[in-house]
Amino acid sequence: MFNYKYIITYVSLLFTFFVHGGEVSITIDDFNFNDQLLSGEERNNEILKTLTKHKIIAAGFVTTKYLSLPNAQNGVEAWSKAGHLIGNHTENHFSYAKTNFNDFSNDVLLADGKLKVFKTFQKFFRFPYLKEGETEEKRDQLRKFLISQGYKNGAVTIDASDWYVNKRMLDKLKVYPDFDKTKFRDFYLKHLWDRTQYYSSLSQKTLGRDVKHTLLLHHNLTTALFLDDLIEMFKSKGWKVIDATEAFNDPIYKLQPKNIPAGESLIWALAKDKGDKTLRYPAEDGEYEKAEMDKLGL
Ligand SMILES: [Zn+2]
Q1: Any idea what the CATH number is for the domain that residue 239 is in?
Q2: Ligand 1 center to 230 CA (angstroms)
Q3: How many angstroms does the Cα of residue 267 sit away from the middle of ligand 1?
Q4: By CB distance 3.0 to 4.6 Å, which of 211, 235, 244, 287 could disulfide with 25?
Q5: Nearest residue to 237 (alpha-carbon basis) of 209, 269, 196, 184
């Protein structure tokens, strides 16, 4: 006779053994407090509520031109009060690939001046579009500049296109206000899990280990509506959602890949350095998700 109790114990042990998850932190960019169905303030409250619920310290990379929008200054202040790390994402969100060194470095300093008022501001810099310079000279000029200013690279390890899912959802809701948002949620979760697995295995392949990840999200409606589901998904897959402050202690964030054009996910760039032939460029873009979303009517 089978003893089902033993079988269940055995299967769950196997599950624990094989489904060993990684570690991921939440980082949120831009802080554009425009209206996206919810106001910037409402989105901010939703995101903060979810982070508090899960007792997670996230990192917010603020593009400071948005601080002049209604409730943005208070919204970022609320992040600081809740203990979340505030980092620099420039004043104007220029792409470094399309901007000269002087203009770009001035833009970094402009943001720096505005972010100093927040208590949890730390000198972590995140490149807009993850573009770190299209020539060796520009790349090294800015790296030197950031070091001289005491900045560390607030690099992304798990890049994704949450911004694209958000854009498609807003476009859809404009035409069909009653469209079922859970269809976007399901695609969003699947997409982010797919990218997480990709960068996790690329890390194993490139570095021989998995790292403490930084996942790139944006201060958008998708984050306000789906962040809780996303964190729950990671947990259900055996992943640990860790503080961004802990993730940035991983020694990987000190590495400076040599590839040109510089940038993309840090793991992608390190893999490129090693001569990995399987990489696409750009590493992530809405174009890669378009066909599937079209097919699903999203
Ligand atoms: Zn950005």
Answers
A1: 3.20.20.370
A2: 20
A3: 19
A4: 244
A5: 196
Between the CA of 241 and the centroid of ligand 1 the distance, in Å, is 22
76: containing domain: 21-295
- Does residue 8 belong to any structural domain of this protein? no
pLDDT given at position 16: 46
How far away, in angstroms, is 98 Cα from ligand 1 center? 15
Calculate how far, in angstroms, residue 169's C-alpha sits from the geometric centre of ligand 1: 19
Decide if 36 is inside a domain.
yes
In a domain, 28, yes or no: yes
Q: Does residue 13 lie in a domain region?
A: no
* CA–CA distance, 236 with 101 (Å, rounded to integer): 44
Computed from CA positions of residues 267, 97, 95, 146, in that sequence, does the dihedral angle turn out positive or negative?
positive
The pLDDT of residue 292:
97
Q: 130 C-alpha vs ligand 1 centroid, how far in Å?
A: 8
Domain count, the chain: 1
- Position 273 scores a pLDDT of 96
Confidence (pLDDT) at 66: 98
Please report, for residues 19, 96, 105, 132, 273, the alpha-carbon distance to residue 138 in angstroms, rounded to integers and kept in the order given: 43, 9, 11, 8, 18
Q: How far is the CA of 92 from the centre of ligand 1 (A)?
A: 10
DSSP H or E segment with residue 60: strand 59-62
Query: Ligand 1 centre from 12 Cα, in Å?
Result: 41
Residue 175 is predicted with a pLDDT of 97
